[in-house]
Amino acid sequence: MAEIWDTLGRPVPGATEEDTSKGHFKDQPGQTARLNPGDTINPGVDAQGNTGNLIVYTGANPTQGTDGTSGVDYEYALSIANTLYGFLPESIVKTFANGYIEYGGDKDLALSFTRNSDEYKKEFSWLFNDDGITLKMSEIEAIGVKESFKNTLREVGIEDFSDFEDEFNEMVGDVAPNEFQQRIDTVYAAVNNRIPEVRTLLADYLGIEYDDATIFASLINDKVEDKVLNAAIDTVTIGAEAASRGFAYSFGRFNTLKQQGMNLKMAKELYENAGSIMSLASSIGRDLDINTLEDAALGDTQATERVTRINAELASQQGLSLGAKINEDKVVGLTEN
Predict the structure, then answer these.
(1) Full-model pTM
(2) Is residue 165 part of a domain?
Protein backbone atom coordinates (compact mmCIF):
# COMPACT_ATOMS: atom_id res chain seq x y z
CA MET A 1 0.00 0.00 0.00
CA ALA A 2 1.25 3.50 -0.82
CA GLU A 3 2.26 5.67 2.11
CA ILE A 4 -0.37 8.18 3.21
CA TRP A 5 0.54 11.70 4.39
CA ASP A 6 -1.18 14.19 6.65
CA THR A 7 -1.52 17.91 5.87
CA LEU A 8 1.92 18.68 7.31
CA GLY A 9 3.52 16.18 4.95
CA ARG A 10 4.05 13.45 7.59
CA PRO A 11 3.35 9.71 7.08
CA VAL A 12 0.12 8.52 8.71
CA PRO A 13 0.28 4.89 9.95
CA GLY A 14 -3.00 3.02 9.49
CA ALA A 15 -4.49 5.46 6.97
CA THR A 16 -5.98 3.88 3.86
CA GLU A 17 -6.26 4.87 0.24
CA GLU A 18 -9.99 5.16 0.82
CA ASP A 19 -9.25 7.98 3.25
CA THR A 20 -7.40 9.89 0.55
CA SER A 21 -10.25 9.40 -1.89
CA LYS A 22 -12.50 11.14 0.63
CA GLY A 23 -10.06 14.02 0.90
CA HIS A 24 -9.15 13.24 4.50
CA PHE A 25 -5.43 12.90 3.82
CA LYS A 26 -2.85 13.53 1.14
CA ASP A 27 -1.52 10.61 -0.89
CA GLN A 28 1.69 12.54 -1.45
CA PRO A 29 3.43 15.53 0.17
CA GLY A 30 2.24 18.94 -1.00
CA GLN A 31 -1.34 17.98 -1.88
CA THR A 32 -4.24 19.93 -0.34
CA ALA A 33 -6.24 17.99 2.25
CA ARG A 34 -9.02 18.40 4.78
CA LEU A 35 -9.97 16.75 8.06
CA ASN A 36 -13.34 15.30 9.06
CA PRO A 37 -14.52 13.83 12.37
CA GLY A 38 -13.05 10.36 12.89
CA ASP A 39 -9.92 11.05 10.86
CA THR A 40 -6.67 9.90 12.44
CA ILE A 41 -3.83 12.42 12.67
CA ASN A 42 -0.17 11.58 13.08
CA PRO A 43 1.30 13.99 15.68
CA GLY A 44 4.86 13.44 14.41
CA VAL A 45 7.90 13.08 16.67
CA ASP A 46 9.27 15.09 19.57
CA ALA A 47 12.78 16.55 19.96
CA GLN A 48 14.09 13.14 21.10
CA GLY A 49 12.69 11.35 18.07
CA ASN A 50 9.84 9.64 19.91
CA THR A 51 6.69 9.07 17.86
CA GLY A 52 3.52 10.39 19.45
CA ASN A 53 0.19 8.62 19.67
CA LEU A 54 -2.26 8.81 16.80
CA ILE A 55 -4.96 11.41 17.38
CA VAL A 56 -8.58 10.89 16.34
CA TYR A 57 -10.00 14.18 15.11
CA THR A 58 -13.36 14.93 16.74
CA GLY A 59 -13.93 18.53 15.72
CA ALA A 60 -16.92 19.94 13.92
CA ASN A 61 -17.32 19.01 10.29
CA PRO A 62 -15.66 21.80 8.27
CA THR A 63 -17.83 23.86 6.04
CA GLN A 64 -17.03 24.86 2.49
CA GLY A 65 -15.72 28.41 2.29
CA THR A 66 -16.67 30.87 -0.43
CA ASP A 67 -13.13 30.66 -1.82
CA GLY A 68 -13.41 26.92 -2.38
CA THR A 69 -11.23 25.89 0.55
CA SER A 70 -12.40 23.77 3.43
CA GLY A 71 -12.39 24.98 7.00
CA VAL A 72 -13.99 27.03 9.73
CA ASP A 73 -15.23 30.53 8.98
CA TYR A 74 -12.18 32.81 8.71
CA GLU A 75 -13.57 35.63 10.85
CA TYR A 76 -14.30 33.19 13.64
CA ALA A 77 -10.83 31.63 13.29
CA LEU A 78 -9.25 35.08 13.41
CA SER A 79 -11.17 35.95 16.57
CA ILE A 80 -9.82 32.77 18.22
CA ALA A 81 -6.31 33.63 17.05
CA ASN A 82 -6.53 37.14 18.49
CA THR A 83 -7.91 35.83 21.77
CA LEU A 84 -5.09 33.32 22.21
CA TYR A 85 -2.16 35.10 20.55
CA GLY A 86 -3.09 38.73 20.11
CA PHE A 87 0.23 39.70 21.74
CA LEU A 88 2.10 38.30 18.72
CA PRO A 89 2.73 40.11 15.39
CA GLU A 90 -0.26 40.35 13.09
CA SER A 91 1.30 38.05 10.49
CA ILE A 92 1.60 35.28 13.10
CA VAL A 93 -1.99 35.77 14.29
CA LYS A 94 -3.26 35.46 10.72
CA THR A 95 -1.14 32.35 10.16
CA PHE A 96 -2.66 30.76 13.25
CA ALA A 97 -6.14 31.58 11.95
CA ASN A 98 -5.31 29.84 8.68
CA GLY A 99 -3.99 26.83 10.61
CA TYR A 100 -7.14 26.81 12.73
CA ILE A 101 -9.18 26.57 9.54
CA GLU A 102 -6.84 24.00 8.00
CA TYR A 103 -7.22 21.73 11.02
CA GLY A 104 -10.92 22.24 11.59
CA GLY A 105 -10.66 24.16 14.84
CA ASP A 106 -7.90 22.13 16.55
CA LYS A 107 -5.88 24.75 18.47
CA ASP A 108 -2.86 22.50 19.14
CA LEU A 109 -2.47 21.55 15.50
CA ALA A 110 -3.01 25.17 14.45
CA LEU A 111 -0.14 26.18 16.74
CA SER A 112 2.13 23.49 15.28
CA PHE A 113 1.14 24.68 11.81
CA THR A 114 2.00 28.27 12.82
CA ARG A 115 5.40 27.43 14.29
CA ASN A 116 6.28 25.54 11.12
CA SER A 117 5.40 28.47 8.85
CA ASP A 118 7.75 30.87 7.09
CA GLU A 119 5.96 33.81 8.75
CA TYR A 120 6.74 32.45 12.19
CA LYS A 121 10.38 31.66 11.40
CA LYS A 122 10.86 35.16 10.02
CA GLU A 123 9.68 36.68 13.31
CA PHE A 124 10.96 34.09 15.78
CA SER A 125 14.00 32.41 14.25
CA TRP A 126 15.91 33.43 17.39
CA LEU A 127 13.53 31.41 19.60
CA PHE A 128 14.49 28.02 18.15
CA ASN A 129 17.11 25.81 19.75
CA ASP A 130 20.08 24.69 17.67
CA ASP A 131 18.07 21.74 16.34
CA GLY A 132 15.83 24.21 14.48
CA ILE A 133 12.74 22.37 15.74
CA THR A 134 12.24 22.83 19.47
CA LEU A 135 11.82 26.21 21.16
CA LYS A 136 13.85 27.67 24.03
CA MET A 137 10.60 28.69 25.70
CA SER A 138 7.08 29.71 24.74
CA GLU A 139 6.43 32.95 22.91
CA ILE A 140 4.79 34.61 25.89
CA GLU A 141 7.70 33.60 28.16
CA ALA A 142 10.23 35.01 25.67
CA ILE A 143 8.35 38.29 25.39
CA GLY A 144 8.28 38.48 29.20
CA VAL A 145 12.05 37.96 29.39
CA LYS A 146 12.65 40.70 26.83
CA GLU A 147 10.36 43.02 28.78
CA SER A 148 12.49 42.36 31.87
CA PHE A 149 15.59 43.40 29.89
CA LYS A 150 13.81 46.59 28.87
CA ASN A 151 12.79 47.34 32.45
CA THR A 152 16.42 47.06 33.51
CA LEU A 153 17.41 49.66 30.91
CA ARG A 154 14.51 51.90 31.90
CA GLU A 155 16.00 52.04 35.39
CA VAL A 156 19.08 53.78 33.97
CA GLY A 157 17.04 56.14 31.81
CA ILE A 158 17.02 54.30 28.46
CA GLU A 159 13.60 54.28 26.79
CA ASP A 160 14.46 53.62 23.13
CA PHE A 161 15.21 49.90 22.73
CA SER A 162 15.33 49.72 18.93
CA ASP A 163 19.11 49.39 18.91
CA PHE A 164 19.06 46.57 21.46
CA GLU A 165 16.58 44.18 19.79
CA ASP A 166 19.24 41.89 18.28
CA GLU A 167 21.04 41.63 21.62
CA PHE A 168 17.76 40.88 23.43
CA ASN A 169 16.97 38.10 20.95
CA GLU A 170 20.43 36.57 21.35
CA MET A 171 20.16 36.62 25.15
CA VAL A 172 16.74 34.95 25.42
CA GLY A 173 17.27 31.47 26.83
CA ASP A 174 20.94 32.14 27.59
CA VAL A 175 20.93 35.14 29.94
CA ALA A 176 18.51 35.30 32.84
CA PRO A 177 16.86 38.67 33.62
CA ASN A 178 18.63 38.91 37.01
CA GLU A 179 21.99 38.25 35.35
CA PHE A 180 21.34 41.05 32.86
CA GLN A 181 20.38 43.33 35.76
CA GLN A 182 23.70 42.58 37.46
CA ARG A 183 25.65 43.27 34.27
CA ILE A 184 24.00 46.64 33.74
CA ASP A 185 24.37 47.62 37.40
CA THR A 186 28.09 46.84 37.23
CA VAL A 187 28.66 48.90 34.10
CA TYR A 188 26.52 51.76 35.36
CA ALA A 189 28.44 51.93 38.64
CA ALA A 190 31.72 52.05 36.71
CA VAL A 191 30.78 54.81 34.25
CA ASN A 192 28.15 56.89 36.02
CA ASN A 193 30.65 59.23 37.66
CA ARG A 194 32.29 59.94 34.31
CA ILE A 195 29.13 60.82 32.42
CA PRO A 196 29.22 64.59 33.23
CA GLU A 197 32.71 64.93 31.73
CA VAL A 198 31.77 62.79 28.75
CA ARG A 199 28.69 64.94 28.11
CA THR A 200 30.77 68.14 28.15
CA LEU A 201 33.47 66.73 25.88
CA LEU A 202 30.95 65.40 23.38
CA ALA A 203 29.26 68.79 23.27
CA ASP A 204 32.62 70.42 22.58
CA TYR A 205 33.52 67.92 19.88
CA LEU A 206 30.21 67.38 18.11
CA GLY A 207 28.43 70.60 19.01
CA ILE A 208 25.48 68.58 20.28
CA GLU A 209 24.24 67.98 23.81
CA TYR A 210 23.52 64.33 24.60
CA ASP A 211 21.50 63.26 27.61
CA ASP A 212 22.85 60.82 30.18
CA ALA A 213 20.71 57.94 28.92
CA THR A 214 22.06 58.25 25.37
CA ILE A 215 25.62 58.38 26.65
CA PHE A 216 25.12 55.33 28.85
CA ALA A 217 23.45 53.46 25.98
CA SER A 218 26.52 54.09 23.86
CA LEU A 219 28.77 52.67 26.55
CA ILE A 220 26.94 49.33 26.69
CA ASN A 221 26.12 48.85 23.02
CA ASP A 222 28.55 49.34 20.15
CA LYS A 223 25.73 49.80 17.62
CA VAL A 224 24.42 52.78 19.55
CA GLU A 225 27.91 54.21 19.63
CA ASP A 226 28.30 53.91 15.87
CA LYS A 227 24.82 55.22 15.12
CA VAL A 228 24.44 58.01 17.67
CA LEU A 229 27.85 59.14 18.80
CA ASN A 230 29.79 58.85 15.58
CA ALA A 231 32.36 56.51 17.16
CA ALA A 232 33.57 59.32 19.42
CA ILE A 233 32.54 57.84 22.76
CA ASP A 234 35.72 55.79 23.36
CA THR A 235 37.87 58.82 22.73
CA VAL A 236 35.92 61.20 24.93
CA THR A 237 35.68 58.64 27.71
CA ILE A 238 39.47 58.42 27.80
CA GLY A 239 39.59 62.19 27.61
CA ALA A 240 37.13 62.41 30.50
CA GLU A 241 39.62 60.60 32.73
CA ALA A 242 42.18 63.28 31.95
CA ALA A 243 39.80 66.25 32.03
CA SER A 244 38.31 65.27 35.40
CA ARG A 245 41.82 65.50 36.89
CA GLY A 246 42.67 68.88 35.43
CA PHE A 247 44.61 67.91 32.31
CA ALA A 248 43.98 69.79 29.08
CA TYR A 249 41.62 68.09 26.66
CA SER A 250 42.15 67.75 22.92
CA PHE A 251 39.92 65.39 20.96
CA GLY A 252 42.63 64.90 18.34
CA ARG A 253 45.21 63.96 20.99
CA PHE A 254 42.97 61.44 22.74
CA ASN A 255 41.77 60.00 19.46
CA THR A 256 45.41 59.34 18.57
CA LEU A 257 46.00 57.71 21.95
CA LYS A 258 42.95 55.48 21.42
CA GLN A 259 44.21 54.45 17.98
CA GLN A 260 47.61 53.62 19.48
CA GLY A 261 46.04 51.30 22.03
CA MET A 262 44.99 53.40 24.98
CA ASN A 263 41.91 51.97 26.66
CA LEU A 264 39.78 53.08 29.57
CA LYS A 265 41.61 50.94 32.15
CA MET A 266 45.00 52.31 31.11
CA ALA A 267 43.66 55.87 31.06
CA LYS A 268 42.15 55.55 34.52
CA GLU A 269 45.42 54.28 36.04
CA LEU A 270 47.53 56.84 34.22
CA TYR A 271 45.57 60.00 34.93
CA GLU A 272 44.74 59.10 38.52
CA ASN A 273 48.45 59.09 39.37
CA ALA A 274 49.95 61.44 36.77
CA GLY A 275 49.75 64.58 38.94
CA SER A 276 51.65 63.10 41.89
CA ILE A 277 54.19 61.42 39.60
CA MET A 278 54.95 64.71 37.83
CA SER A 279 55.23 66.44 41.22
CA LEU A 280 57.76 63.87 42.42
CA ALA A 281 59.84 64.35 39.29
CA SER A 282 59.77 68.14 39.77
CA SER A 283 61.01 67.72 43.37
CA ILE A 284 64.35 66.42 42.05
CA GLY A 285 64.54 68.99 39.26
CA ARG A 286 63.25 66.81 36.45
CA ASP A 287 60.61 67.98 33.97
CA LEU A 288 58.11 65.20 33.33
CA ASP A 289 55.00 66.13 31.36
CA ILE A 290 51.77 64.31 30.73
CA ASN A 291 52.58 63.59 27.09
CA THR A 292 55.71 61.68 28.13
CA LEU A 293 53.70 59.59 30.60
CA GLU A 294 51.06 58.88 27.95
CA ASP A 295 53.69 57.83 25.42
CA ALA A 296 55.46 55.66 27.98
CA ALA A 297 52.21 53.90 28.85
CA LEU A 298 51.79 53.09 25.14
CA GLY A 299 55.33 51.72 24.78
CA ASP A 300 57.23 54.61 23.17
CA THR A 301 60.92 53.74 23.63
CA GLN A 302 62.26 57.25 24.35
CA ALA A 303 59.44 58.07 26.76
CA THR A 304 59.88 54.75 28.54
CA GLU A 305 63.62 55.32 28.96
CA ARG A 306 63.03 58.82 30.34
CA VAL A 307 60.50 57.62 32.92
CA THR A 308 62.87 54.80 33.89
CA ARG A 309 65.78 57.24 34.43
CA ILE A 310 63.67 59.57 36.55
CA ASN A 311 62.43 56.61 38.52
CA ALA A 312 66.02 55.54 39.21
CA GLU A 313 67.00 59.07 40.33
CA LEU A 314 64.07 59.25 42.70
CA ALA A 315 65.04 55.93 44.22
CA SER A 316 68.66 56.99 44.72
CA GLN A 317 68.09 60.55 45.94
CA GLN A 318 64.97 60.30 48.08
CA GLY A 319 64.26 56.62 48.47
CA LEU A 320 61.12 57.14 46.39
CA SER A 321 59.98 55.58 43.15
CA LEU A 322 57.19 55.89 40.64
CA GLY A 323 56.16 52.30 41.15
CA ALA A 324 56.81 51.81 37.46
CA LYS A 325 57.27 48.36 35.96
CA ILE A 326 58.38 47.52 32.45
CA ASN A 327 56.19 45.00 30.67
CA GLU A 328 56.73 44.33 26.95
CA ASP A 329 58.61 47.65 26.63
CA LYS A 330 55.73 49.59 28.18
CA VAL A 331 55.63 51.41 31.50
CA VAL A 332 52.79 49.91 33.49
CA GLY A 333 51.55 50.32 37.04
CA LEU A 334 52.53 53.98 37.37
CA THR A 335 51.83 54.80 40.99
CA GLU A 336 53.51 56.79 43.71
CA ASN A 337 55.46 54.52 46.08
Answers:
(1) 0.49
(2) no
Check residue 222 and give its pLDDT.
64
Q: Same domain for 32 and 81?
A: no
Tens of pLDDT, residue by residue over 113-130, are 999 999 999 999 999 998
Residue 97 lies in a domain: yes
Percent of the chain with pLDDT over 90: 16
Say if strands 63-64 and 330-332 run parallel, antiparallel, or are unpaired: unpaired
The per-residue b/e assignment along 253-262, b for 16 or more CB within 10 angstroms, e otherwise, is: bbbebbeeeb
Determine, yes or no, domain membership for 257.
no
Q: Does residue 37 form part of some domain?
A: yes
Longest Cα separation, the chain: 106
Enclosing domain of residue 89? 70-127
Helices 212-220, 233-243: axis angle to 10 degrees equals 110
Domain count, the chain: 3
DSSP string covering 264-289, please? HHHHHHHHHHHHHHHHHHHHTT----
Q: Determine the Cα–Cα distance for residues 276 and 98; give it in Å rounded to an integer.
A: 74
Q: What are phi and psi of 137, to 5 degrees?
A: -170, 175
